[in-house]
Amino acid sequence: MKINVTADVFKLAQVFTIARGSRTEAKVLTVRLQDGVHKGWGECVPYARYGESLESVTEQIMGLPRDVTRAALYDALPAGAARNAVDCALWDLEAKRSGRRVWELAGLPAPKPEVTAYTLSLDTPAAMQAQAAEHAFRPLLKIKLGTPDDMPRLEAVRAGAPKSTIIVDANEGWSAGVYADLAPHLVRLGVALVEQPLPAGEDDALLGMARPVPVCADESAHDCASLPELKGKYDVVNIKLDKTGGLTEALALRDAALAEGYQVMVGCMVGSSLAMAPATLVAQGALITDLDGPLLLAEDRDQPLTFDAAGVHPPAATLWG
After folding, report:
1. pLDDT of residue 275
2. Residues with Cβ < 8 Å from 177, sequence gap 6 or more?
3. Of residues 55, 124, 66, 120, the one with CA closest to residue 93
4. How do residues 244-303 score in pLDDT, each as one tens digit?
5. Cβ atoms within 10 A of the Cβ of 298, count?
6. Can you tell me whether residue 195 is helix, strand or coil?
7. How crowded is residue 169: how many other Cβ atoms within 10 Å of its Cβ?
8. What confidence score (pLDDT) does residue 145 get?
9. Range 177-194 burial, b when 16+ CB lie within 10 A, else e
């Protein structure tokens, strides 16, 4: 089997800012597998927060044996971007070989559209209110926060989109005290969920703390091995394929999290429709779906995912799976 890795760049529709910085493009890796007859592909987004780069992830992938299987992949690579792209490419290759859709191979029901959050970039309150007003027709908005001046931004977004459900992503930017101080205001403004308010290494402070707004683990949750450390701290687990290391582990994490009483959010890095396609299977019935990556791009893959009033639709076979 041939393994090919390319670095691809997709321009963003506008500057995208979170507490950690700004970007104008999405840099991804595309993995293509070819067995001489069939081709499968997948995409990952290396993330510096986890010590990944385009170069390091490419090296991991190119070091794999050419006869690697999905089962062997989990011993060959740790959870992360490299394993994600290869795992998803192997699922796609298997679907192409069999002439069946991935959800059939995985024993899942046929997926349906899921309403997805749309992320507002971190900006001044006035600019965020304008963004919110522009997207007030969307049922679910996600706000990037995590600064000392979050309340004016939150108030501005609520003023701009009075009917939308709002979720907040603090990107590890708060302390326990800040969350406790903000919680009554989050309730007042109708915030439905707060994502990773505290740094992953400092989230023991959430133990025993009142959580009037559900708290979701993102940077603290990677794969099934992460679950024991979340107990008593979080109400929701954010599943991202670039963290789990692929669709296989993402499905396992979803089942394990639900069995332990967590609710599930399915999120993404900023990538193309190819990266979102496998995640649409994990998102079925999730409390929150956050697969808006392609909506933030100025350009996308051929045969991209469909987004409409019903939400993000599962991929066509011409895209993936």
Report:
1. 98
2. none
3. 66
4. 999 999 999 999 999 999 999 999 999 999 999 999 999 999 999 999 999 999 999 999
5. 12
6. strand
7. 26
8. 84
9. ebbbebbeebeebebebb
What is residue 1's three-state secondary structure? coil
Residues paired with residue 9 on neighbouring β-strands, in sequence order:
27
pLDDT tens for each residue of 74-131: 999 999 999 999 999 999 999 999 999 999 999 999 999 999 999 998 889 999 999 9
Distances (CA, A) of 306 to 10, 30, 85, 239, 246: 18, 21, 21, 21, 22
pTM (two decimals): 0.95
| CB-neighbour burial class of residue 165 (10 A; exposed 0-12, middle 13-18, buried 19+) | middle
Task: Find tokens 């025993």 and name the residue.
Answer: 208
**How far from 212 is each of 194, 234, 235, 303, CA to CA, in Å?**
10, 12, 11, 42
Structure tokens at 203: 């989230």
Q: Token match 């350009």: residue?
A: 299
**pLDDT tens-digit series, residues 129-169:** 999 999 999 999 999 888 778 899 999 999 999 999 999 99
